[in-house]
Amino acid sequence: MSLYTRTKSLLTSDDGMSTVEYAMGSLAAAALAAVLYAVINAQAVVDAIESIITDALSNTPV
What we know:
rod-shaped, DUF4244 domain-containing protein, DUF4244, membrane, transmembrane, transmembrane helix, mainly alpha
């Protein structure tokens, strides 16, 4: 097998590609979930949501 043929075969082969892509996608999704969890559980966000709900329930319609 010539060097050109072997290099072309290595560069165009997708063997195992879907597994790597799946792993990277799963890792990215887990990282995004961790960031969103940290943001939602931040005290400022909890206070803001609590304030919005309290204001909505305590105000009477005009």
